[in-house]
UniProtKB/TrEMBL annotation:
Key words, A-Z: Transferase
InterPro entries assigned to the protein according to its UniProt record, in alphabetical order: DUF1972, Glyco_trans_1
Highest taxon listed in the record's lineage: Bacteria
Organism from which the protein derives: Isoptericola hypogeus
One Pfam family from the record: Glycos_transf_1
Positions of the Glycosyl transferase family domain: 200-334
Domain DUF1972 residues, every copy: 8-177
Biased composition (Basic and acidic residues): 382-391
Name of this protein: Glycosyltransferase
Length: 391
């Protein structure tokens, strides 16, 4: 049981079950553990994310609400409805995911619900946003600093960014990694025409900053004999997705599986991959990367500070298609060394434990309820100096 029983709201994601990305994975993994410790956890979930609009999931209360189905409004419209519900049904504290939701923080403050914001990565760097979108995300980032009772960073690079840019501290709480096991009987692989250690794997939304195009181009130029299996889709990026589909159509070694939502199948894919190719570049600690090393998959990652922070010496790194081409051929030329890197990654995954993550959120919830957090930082101002360290 928890030392202090609290009611805790988790707002700003697609909710549970986790079927989409890092925020949803964090909400499910953290929320279930907080509930098991005796806290009353309420998760706000978008309509369509769970069958039948269930009111309870793994010990958590689920409040299902709608959203406008437009990229620029989907998150904000759902969060607006969630905050309205929360004001009418207050909890002791709230965890708000995504700095984009910062405009609603003053409403929570007016309702006297202390809130910590998990700011994620540098959303304004994403290519999918135009000038107006990027300006909004920079403004929302600033608002999160000025209105949150605490800021949560999931990577040291994000913590350092907020320290450098705004001069404010963050609670550094990374994600957790799944355990390094593959429990399936291999039937999922057989159904897909795959065999263990017989393919290179990519799992990512098709967005430019995830560099799926770089991976596909680098693989296509290689002499790799194992196929490239690409899991992912992009509901708002038809042009970018078309570029990837065209590349796959020219190379029979490239297989596009689309979105795979069955977690057991994903576990088999991660746990049986010869390498996992990770192109994410603007987020913090990425759950897909943690899932890969937890499964013991040798990782070749895009060379940014976030990925090096997780992998350290267990990873290989690329920036260009040509660099990836060489690394793929090197991996296939020495399977033994490649498997050793996978074992090193699995060892590194032990440092990312969901029980520890949930315990840190529990302590932060107690600090929020007791008004022991350092924020909000009403006078915080952005630094005029550009931040280079995350590139």
């Amino acid at each position: 049981m928890a030392a202090q029983t609290l009611s805790i709201a988790m707002i700003g994601t697609r909710g549970v079950p986790a079927r989409y990305g890092g925020f949803e994975t964090a909400v499910e993994e953290i929320g279930t553990r907080l509930a098991a410790r005796g806290h009353r956890v309420r998760v706000y979930t978008r309509r369509g994310n769970s069958e039948g609009g269930a009111a309870e999931y793994r010990g958590m209360q689920v409040v299902t609400l709608g959203a406008l189905r437009r990229r620029s409004l989907e998150t904000l419209s759902h969060t607006a409805l969630s905050v309205a519900h929360l004001v009418a049904h207050r909890t002791d504290v709230a965890f708000v995911f995504n700095a984009a939701n910062a405009p609603f923080l003053p409403v929570l403050r007016a309702a006297r619900v202390p809130a910590a914001t998990h700011v994620d990565g540098l959303e304004w760097r994403r290519a999918k946003w135009g000038g107006a979108g990027r300006r909004y995300y920079r403004a929302a980032e600033t608002a999160a600093v000025r209105w949150s009772d605490a800021i949560i960073a999931d990577a040291a690079g994000i913590r350092d960014y907020y320290e450098h840019t705004y001069g404010v501290p963050s609670a550094l709480i990374a994600y957790g990694a799944p355990s390094a096991t593959t429990t399936g009987d291999g039937s999922a692989l057989a159904d897909l025409g795959l065999v263990r250690d017989g393919y290179h794997l990519v799992v990512a939304r098709f967005e430019p900053e995830n560099h799926v195009h770089t991976i596909v181009d680098g693989y296509a130029a290689s002499r790799a004999t194992r196929p490239l299996v690409v899991v992912g889709s992009a509901p708002y990026a038809a042009g970018y997705s078309g570029r990837i589909r065209d590349a796959a159509a020219r190379d029979p070694r490239i297989r596009l599986l689309g979105g795979v939502w069955d977690q057991a199948v994903l576990d088999e894919l991660y746990g049986s991959a010869f390498t996992y190719l990770h192109g994410h570049s603007v987020g913090g600690t990425n759950p897909s990367l943690l899932r890969a090393i937890g499964a013991g998959a040798p990782v070749v990652a895009y060379d940014v500070a976030f990925n090096r922070e997780v992998l350290r010496d267990a990873g290989e790194y690329f920036r260009t298609p040509g660099e990836l081409t060489g690394l793929l051929e090197k991996a296939e030329a020495d399977p033994g060394l490649t498997r050793e890197r996978g074992a090193a990654g699995a060892h590194r995954a032990r440092d990312y434990d969901w029980d520890d993550v949930a315990a840190a959120y529990g302590r932060l919830a107690e600090d929020l309820a007791a008004r022991r957090t350092p924020g909000p930082f009403r006078r915080a101002r952005r630094s005029p100096e550009p931040w280079k360290e995350l590139s």
